[in-house]
Specification:
The protein has about 300 residues and is an alpha/beta fold. It is built from nine helices and 13 strands. The protein has two domains: about 5-100 and about 290-305, ornithine cyclodeaminase, domain 1; about 110-285, NAD(P)-binding Rossmann-like Domain (Rossmann fold, 3-Layer(aba) Sandwich), CATH 3.40.50. Helix content is about 30%, strand content about 25%. Strand 2 and strand 3 (about 45-55) form a beta hairpin. Helix 2 crosses helix 3.
Length: about 300
């Protein structure tokens, strides 16, 4: 097979509903084998994630996270994605890292929102005004097309700039207001201390937690976790690795048994909203198995569009 390089030019052919279908189908397959490695230098991170799903393929994704890069006019996150054939182990494709990351991260949390948020959710608050927030704005609109959006950022000027060319979007200077007024709250920050207070939450809300990916990161406080029904995209990539859950579990605030379900419970019908008045939290760990599912979807679309055009 000829090695292909899948670039961002394929993006107009991608669809959020189809991406969610790829995640659902991927979790109906045998459970992925996963392996992660993390290296740290000060605030910078080198993260390599590998996944192999029987019948789907294998993937290695390496990311560098340099939080100070935006001050250098560079992306904070960079890296590479390699997709391997499950049949013969050959390298099928090198995929655009930023394309895969955008669609994996957003589809990951969109999958949770589709199944945990109330279907009538009409107000969505984005916490953080970076690249991920822009992706989530696009993704949420596919499932909640009539939603009104609010965005909060530590620097209000960044939030104001974010909304300039977007529909149904306003900037909010007060974090508590952004949280209390929303049906869905999406956090995408680099915070090391909790931003969202559990006392602000009200019955019926859903929280997608994206930002925390290191052991020293938190976005919601202990009270929020104690008040909510907690879900994760993967127990294997969140409970022992990410401070959002690792820290409160270690201190006895919650237990691993408090995790209601992950995406591998979806085929059995267990990944669902407990009731209309529940507060639900889903922690996005973004494991390599999700990169593999989304990369395989993107690669399939690329082949249909460029190798086998109608």
């Amino acid at each position: 097979m000829t090695l292909c390089h899948v670039t961002a030019e394929i993006e107009p052919h991608l669809d959020w509903h189809a991406a969610l279908g790829a995640i659902a189908k991927g979790h109906a397959r045998p459970k992925a084998q996963l392996h992660d490695t993390f290296l740290y230098q000060r605030n910078d991170t080198l993260l390599s994630r590998a996944a192999w799903i029987d019948g789907l393929g294998a993937l290695v994704k390496t990311a560098t996270v340099f939080p100070e890069n935006p001050s250098r006019n560079l992306p904070a996150v960079n890296g590479s994605v390699a997709l391997y054939s499950d049949r013969d182990g050959q390298l099928d494709a090198i995929l655009d890292f930023h394309l895969v990351t955008k669609w994996k991260t957003a589809a990951d949390s969109l999958f949770a929102a589709r199944h945990l948020a109330r279907p009538d959710s009409g107000r969505i608050s984005l916490i953080g005004a970076g690249t991920v927030a822009r992706s989530m704005y696009d993704a949420y609109r596919a499932i909640f097309p009539q939603a009104q959006f609010t965005i909060w950022a530590r620097n209000f000027d960044n939030a104001a700039l974010f909304v300039r060319d977007l529909d149904n979007m306003r900037a909010e200077p007060d974090l508590e207001n952004a949280v209390t007024q929303a049906d869905i709250i999406c956090t995408a920050t680099m915070s090391k201390t909790p931003l969202i207070r559990g006392d602000w939450l009200r019955p019926g809300q859903h929280l997608d937690l994206i930002g925390a990916f290191r052991p020293d990161m938190r976005e919601v406080d202990d009270t929020a976790l104690q008040r909510a029904d907690i879900f994760v995209d993967s127990r294997d990539t969140t409970l022992d690795h990410i401070g959002e859950l690792k820290d409160p579990i270690a201190r006895g605030i919650i237990t691993k048994e408090d995790i209601q379900a992950d995406y591998y419970d979806f085929p059995a019908g267990k990944f669902k909203r407990p009731g209309s008045q529940a507060i639900t939290i889903c922690k996005n760990g973004g494991g390599a198995h999700l990169d593999l599912m989304i990369s395989h979807y993107i690669y399939t679309v690329w082949k249909d569009c460029f190798q086998n055009p109608a």
